[in-house]
Amino acid sequence: MIVDVHCHYTLTRRAAQPADGATPLERFSFEPEIEADGTPALDSFLAPRIFRRPIWSVTPLLAGLGWKPRPGPDFDRKLQAWYERHLLADGPIQRAVLLAFDRYHDDAGRAPPPPERRGQLGSDMYTSNSLIRDLCRRHPNRFVFGASIHPYRKNALACLDEVFAAGACLMKWLPLHQNINCEDPRTMAMLRHCAKLGLPLLMHYGEEFTLASQHPQFVSVQPLLKVLRELRRTAEMPTCIIAHVATPALPWGDRGPHAALLAALLDEFADAPLYADISALTAFSKLGWLRRMARAQELHPKLVFGSDFPVPVATTLLRPWLGRDYSKIAATASWPARAIEIYRHLGFNEIVFHRAAMLLPNLSRFATDPAGAPGPAAA
Length: 379
Description:
The protein has 14 helices and eleven strands. The chain is an alpha/beta fold. It has a single domain (3-368), classed as TIM Barrel (Alpha-Beta Barrel). An eight-stranded parallel β-sheet has the order 1-4-6-7-8-9-10-11. A three-stranded antiparallel β-sheet has the order 2-3-5. Helix 4 packs parallel to helix 6. It is globular, with a radius of gyration of 19 Å. The protein starts with a strand and ends in an 11-residue tail after the last helix.
């Protein structure tokens, strides 16, 4: 089974309470329709400051959704249809992990409102677990549930139990944006509990380009390796997948996290459940790393396929590398499917595409139990 472990699904503004009379989503207990302060909750949003960043101009244009489109319900309907065209298209991918993305929490466990301008701390992006579970129920033969629970949430371990019972196949964190210190006792408790449940984590270390790097002290992967070393010693290490092989956001960026991760994968953690995904290596800023990783055959048993959809695939820039296959690959409508064809052409071992099926629980959960009711994990 080929699984794409890294697919985002975020809308510009989706209310938890539908305004059009639609049936409300079944909700997780920690994601109510009304916030604690009495305001209506959202199931997904992009922060106001995102719309002033270059990414908001470039990605919708490349997706054929227009130049700087106006965010809101009308655009979100177009965006949902566009997501489905790419993620539900025929092709080699049999399961796509849709990722929830929890809100920024400060050290006291409070979630501030979406930031308006640079310098404010808060979530540039949010997608609720309730929304992602609902999408998995609607498309049970393709989508699987990637949960996101901030470890500083109140009752975080109970929240983790709730999403796992509902079919979660992994946990997604982006520490430098969300404010997650891997050495914090709350985070370590979550890591131990993920290990107990058999729930892998997909974590981003290294630089970040799309979302604000609000806590650059969490760029380095070294503290995580220290924590995993301790958890491994006590047989409490969960399966961890490091996004983008910890490559820098730009060609001239900080290579330290990538180098440290590669050394760990090939030496100290060679026989431990530490892996890296190759998502976004087809983006224009990471093409040099794409070729390096393709050549690193000794690393391929530790790599996992992911696309980082909806990050655009820089197919045109890859034309010299794709040769006669360029036209066929460029004609592939689905960006994730196109990414697989590029990786295969460049020589990535087939184990990279099938590794996730050996690591993730609940991959057939919604196909066999669309309600996502509690039950045993299905590999």
